[in-house]
Each structure stands twice: as C-alpha cells, then as structure tokens.
Amino acid sequence: MRVALACPYAWGDAGGVQVHVRELAQGLLARGHEVVVLTPARDLPTEPWVVVVGRPVDVPYNASNAPIDPRPWSRAAVRHALAAFGPHVVHAHQPSAPSTGMWATLEARAPVVGTFHSGAGRARLYDVTAPLVRRVARRLAIRIAVSERAAAFERSRIGGTFEIVPNGVDVARFSVAPPADLGPGRKLLFVGRLDERKGFPIALKAFSQLAHHRDDLRLIVVGDGPEGAAVTTLAEDLQERVSMLGEVPNTDLPPISAACDLYLGPAIGGESFGVVLIEAMASGLPVVASDTPGYDEVVRDGIDGLLVPANDPGALAAAAGRVLDDPDLAGRLAAAGRDRAAVFDWSVVLGRMEDVYGRALQAGPASLR
Q1: pLDDT grade, residue 159 (50/70/90)?
Q2: In degrees rounded to 5, what are phi and psi of residue 300?
Q3: Is residue 187 located within the same domain as residue 330?
Q4: DSSP conformational letter for 234
C-alpha cells in the first residue's frame, strides 16, 4: 500500500506529533508499505522519504508554540507531491490546523484518514474557524483521535464520530537502552518544551522542596523554551544540581531516561495524550504526573504511576518524595509501568492503523461517495 503522511509541524522541531509521524512512517516501511511524509521544515531532512512542502511559521497556540506553514502557496506544493507519489491512502495529521494536514486533506484524490492530536482546553481561533474546519472534515473517510480527550475537543467543535487509536511508542528502544553517564546521585527527569503549559516552573519548585532534604538528588532537564531561565529562581547551590541538556533528539533520549530514577510530568493541562509518560514507563521509571485530561488516560493513579493535582508543586513534591523514599512502591510502579507501556507499543498500534487504512480504501474518497 502507498501511504502519504501529512505532518503539520516543522519536521526538525521537537514535538510529539513529529515523533509519532516519524515512527509511524518507519513502522509502515518496515512492514513493506511505500511511504512519503509531507511536512514543513527549517532544514533539509535526512530521511529520503520526507518531502518538504513549506517553511514553518511559529504561531502561539495552546499556551505553547505551533511551527506550522499556514501560507496558501504551500498547498500547491502538497498537491504536486501527492500527484507525484500517487498514494492509495492519505493520512493527514491535525487536519484542523491550517498547515500541511489540512492542505493534504483538501488536495487528496485518494481516501483520507485524519488523526486529531489536540487536547487544548480553549481555542478561540479554532472556534471562529470551526465552520471551515467542518467542511474540511467532511473529506475524511475515517476520523481518528489519539485519546478520548482529543476526541471530545474535536467533537464539540466539528461534530462527527472518532475512533481512538493512541500514539505509538517504540517500547524496546527505551526498555533495553544502557544508561548514559549523567554523574552520581538520584535523578529526577523532566522532558518537554520549557514553557508554562508543560509545567517546568512547577517541576523546579517541587525539586527545590525535595532537594533540601535529599543531598544526593538532582534534576535532569531535556528541552528548551521561554521558561528555561526559571532555573535561576532556585538557590545557587540547587542550581548546581540541575543539568540543563537542551533539546535532545528523541532517538537519543532512551539512555538519558535509563540513567534516571523518577519521571516528573507536571503539565498544567492542554495535553491530549502523554507520549513522554509512556516513554518513561518503558524505561522502567516510576511516573508522578498531573491529574489532567489526556494524562489520566495513560497513567492509572496508584497502579502504574501517581497522579496529583495540576499546578501544585507541593503535591508533586509529596508524591515524588513517597516514591523516592519507598523502594517497594517505586518497584511496583516501575513494573506496572512497563506493562502499561506495552499496550502502546508500535507492534499493537501499527496493526490497528493498517486496519483503518483498509477500511478507508473500501470507503473510497469522500468526494466520490
């Protein structure tokens, strides 16, 4: 089967959607499918199956950054790329965003599957453009949401029915990685864009509370963003115990995870899923995360992780302290987390995706139904 994947966000930028599309493409190729990825990009991708169809513009969205290409002339580049490849199925990611996923949906002559990733709480711009997005959505043969949270967000604005097919994770890549040399001490791990929505300042405050009573405790930070300077709010001696690693390619993340002892997921909301949580669980890390829609579909409180109220550094620190001080609890959460991560392995998700593609082929292009 020839599958065209349309990624709306800049290919080289850090982001869960980009990781999902990249690993989906690699999985489909490994199963014998022909694949092309259409995407905006800042630099020339190294993958031969990626075609750049635009340049990203950084647009503030959902208390974060969306590196999309909303310029209408990129639609022509998508049209030409689809015509050259001749896909049996087009898989458009976040077709509600004015970027590559939307242009591919509008230009496709093959059946279109749409995956919706957003878990935003409020989106005024989306609310204004919802009538247009509903017209785009009518071209989708099958609508997928990565979680019930994402489905509810889209359903309230564009209606229709959605199948839940979660993001996939290469579990083995995380479960067998040897630990990186990050120095001595016990280590908390934070991975994500350093902005308000991902809760980096909350992680710092929780670390401060924990570190005052645990001289061996360190914080490992993977990511970059506008809130990075918040580390300077810590006492000077605590700043020395924070390792700011900057942006790290997802392919290089497993050894870092393997070298840590506990994962902090303090996002304050707006998450549709929680790939970072699954990756941490696959690495054998106990997880302490915010009890927010999306995250609560990944972590089952008290079973394979601990969930705490969002935007509450004290609650985050208290739960993390419980795990750090109770090896039996840490071991139980880590073991259950590994089992939980297996549910989201690509070996499972790819089979479900192939089934969706087959049903989309049977349905045919929306314009011909």
Answers
A1: confident
A2: -95, 115
A3: yes
A4: S
In whole angstroms, give the CA distance from residue 167 to residue 16. 9
Do 151 and 178 share a domain, yes or no? no
Residues 176 and 298 in one domain: yes
User: What pLDDT, on a 0 to 100 scale, did the predictor assign at position 62?
Assistant: 54
- The helix (run of H) or strand (run of E) holding residue 130 is helix 124-137
Phi and psi at residue 79, in whole multiples of 5°?
Answer: -60, -45
Tokens found for residue 130 = 């919802």
The closest alpha carbon to 206, from 175, 164, 238, belongs to 238
Domain range for 50 is 2-168+345-368
10: which residues sit within 8 A by CB, 6+ positions away? 18, 39, 40, 41, 42, 56, 67, 68
Which helix (DSSP H) or strand (DSSP E) does residue 58 occupy?
strand 57-61
pLDDT per position as a tens digit, 241-250: 999 999 999 9
**Rounded to two decimals, what is the model's pTM?**
0.87
The pLDDT tens digits of the residues spanning 290-330 come to 999 999 999 999 999 999 999 999 999 999 999 999 999 99
Measure Cα distances from 295 to 299, 311, 332, 338 in Å: 6, 14, 20, 16
Burial, 325: exposed, middle or buried (Cβ in 10 Å; 0-12, 13-18, 19+)?
A: exposed
Co-location of 157 and 257 in the same domain: no
The answer on pLDDT for 87 being more than 60 is: yes
Give the span between the Cα atoms of 162 and 7, in whole angstroms: 19
Residue 51 tokens read as 């075609």
What pLDDT does residue 195 have?
85
In the chain, what is the straight-line distance between the N-terminal and C-terminal CA atoms, in Å?
21
pLDDT of residue 197: 87
| Residue of 134, 89, 93, 133 whose CA lies nearest to 112 | 89
**Is the separation of the CB atoms in 53 and 100 below 8 Å?**
yes
| Strand 262-265 with 89-93, pairing | unpaired
Which ranges of the chain would DSSP assign to H, the alpha helix?
16-30, 74-85, 100-107, 124-137, 148-158, 171-175, 200-211, 236-239, 253-258, 275-282, 313-325, 327-342, 346-363
Structure tokens at 100: 């590559």
